[in-house]
Amino acid sequence: MVTTPQVMNQHASVVGDCEDDCMLSKLSPAALQLVAEFFKVLSESSRLQIVCRLRNGPKNVSEIIELTGLGQANVSKHLKILAQAGIVTREQQGVCVFYQIANPFVFDLCELVCNSLAQQIQQQTAQQAALDEFRQTIR
Amino acid sequence: MVTTPQVMNQHASVVGDCEDDCMLSKLSPAALQLVAEFFKVLSESSRLQIVCRLRNGPKNVSEIIELTGLGQANVSKHLKILAQAGIVTREQQGVCVFYQIANPFVFDLCELVCNSLAQQIQQQTAQQAALDEFRQTIR
DNA sequence: ACACTCTATAACTAGGGAGTTGTATTGATT
DNA sequence: AATCAATACAACTCCCTAGTTATAGAGTGT
Questions:
Q1: How far is CA B68 from CA A28, B35, B59, B79, B95, in A?
Q2: Which residues pair with B100 in a beta bridge?
Q3: More confident residue, A13 or B28
Q4: Higher pLDDT residue, A133 or A6?
Q5: Which residues from chain B sit within 8 angstroms of residue A36, using beta carbons?
Q6: Does A91 contact chain B (CB < 8 Å)?
Q7: Contact, A88 vs A47, CB < 8 A?
Q8: Contact B36/A43, CB-based, under 8 Å?
Q9: Does A24 touch chain B (CB under 8 A)?
Q10: Were A82 and a residue from A67, A87, B13, B68 both cysteine, which residue would form a disulfide, CB within 3.0 to 4.6 Å?
Q11: In degrees, to the nearest 5, what angle opens at C-alpha A132 toward C-alphas A130 and A137?
Q12: Per-residue pLDDT tens for A53-83?
C-alpha cells in the first residue's frame, strides 16, 4: 500500500526538473500527495481531539474513549489512521493497548495554525471595530 | 457563516476549564474544529499544488490553470476555498484576478511535514536494510 | 452595440470517509 | 473450560466534496 520507493525517487526528481527560481514551486505530484494525506489525517476534529488527549502521556483506548466521548469502534478506526500516518505509536500491555504521540512536532503544527487563526480573528475584530466607529461618525 | 464571536468565547474558555496539567489537552471543541478545518483546506493535493505555484509571487487564474493543468472551474473553486481560509488573498486587475499567498507560514507547515515524512521514510528504509541483511545471514 | 476573454457560479455525479452496529479476537480471571 | 473485558474489524448508511459541464457576468477591444 505504501509507495515508499516511488516516493524516494519522486523526491529525488524534485531537485532535478526545476524550471522556476524556486524548487518548491515544482514539487512532484507524489510528494504533494503525501503531504496532503498527512494534513488530511489532522483535518478531523475527532482525531485532533485524540492527539490533544495524548499530549501529556500515553493512554489506552478505554481512557481515550472516556476522555473524548467518542464511540469505541470510531476511536479504534481513528487510532489506526493516526498510527498509519506515524503520528502515534501503538504498544500492547496485556489486554490494554496504549497509544502515544510518536513525534511531538504535530503540536508545533497545531500551534502555528492556532497563531495564524488568532491573528486572523484579531484582524477581523479590528476591522469590525473600525466599522462600528465609522458607523457612529455618520449617525 | 463565520462563527468569529463564538470562537473568541470558546478560545477564552480554553484557559478556564482546565483539569489536566496541560491546557492544550482540554481544548474546546470549537477551537479544535477551526484547526481541523484549516488542515482540511491543505489536505487536497490540488490546493497544495496551487499554493506551491504561488510561492514565488502572485499569479492570475489563467496562469494557475496553465501551471497546474487543472480545470478552470475547479481552480476557481479551490481558490475560493483558499481565500476563505485566509491562505491566499485576491486582487482584481482589470479582467484578470491575481492571487497571492497571504501568510507564508503555510510553507513552514509544509516544510515541517516534509521533514517528518522524510524522517519516517528514512527509518523505514533503514529497517528494510536491516531486514535484508538478516535475510542474507540466514540463507 | 458586439464579440471576445477571463473568472465565478450553479447543478450534477462519483467517490471517499465518519460514525454506527454487530461480531471476532485476544488476554485475564475464576 | 468458561466467562468477561478490551480492542479490532467488517458492513452499512449518510454526508461531504472534488471534478466536470454548462452558464452567467464582468471587463476590454473593435
A1: 12, 27, 12, 13, 21
A2: B89
A3: B28
A4: A133
A5: 42-45, 47-48
A6: no
A7: no
A8: yes
A9: yes
A10: A87
A11: 95
A12: 999 999 999 999 999 999 999 999 999 999 9
* A65 CB inside 7 Å of strand D: yes
Chain A, residues 71-90, CB within 8 A of chain B, namely 86
> Is B81's CB less than 7 Å from nucleic acid strand C?
no
Q: Which residues of A touch B49 (CB under 8 A)?
A: 27, 29, 32
Cell numbers for B88, please give them.
491566499
B32 vs A contacts (CB less than 8 Å): 45, 48-49, 52
Identify the band that residue B139 occupies on the pLDDT scale cut at 50, 70 and 90: low
Full 3-state SS string of chain A: CCCHHHHHHHHHHHHHCCCCCCHHHHCCHHHHHHHHHHHHHCCCHHHHHHHHHCCCCCEEHHHHHHHHCCCHHHHHHHHHHHHHCCCEEEEEECCEEEEEECCCHHHHHHHHHHHHHHHHHHHHHHHHHHHHHHHHHCC
C-alpha to C-alpha distance for A116 and B89, rounded to whole angstroms: 15
CA distance B108 to chain A (A): 9
For chain A, say whether B114 makes contact (Cβ under 8 Å). Answer: yes
The 10 Å Cβ neighbour count of residue A134 is 10
pLDDT at position A39 is: 98
Using CA of residue B100, residue B104, residue B106, residue B110, what is the dihedral sign? positive
Task: Say what the pLDDT of residue B105 is.
Answer: 97
Please tell me whether any atom of strand C lies within 7 Å of the Cβ of B96.
yes
| Dist. CA B136–CA B118, nearest whole Å | 27
**Which 3 state secondary structure label does DSSP give B96?**
strand
User: Closest Cα to residue B7, out of A117, A110, A21?
Assistant: A117
Q: Is the pLDDT of residue A1 over 70?
A: no
User: What is the reported pTM?
Assistant: 0.83
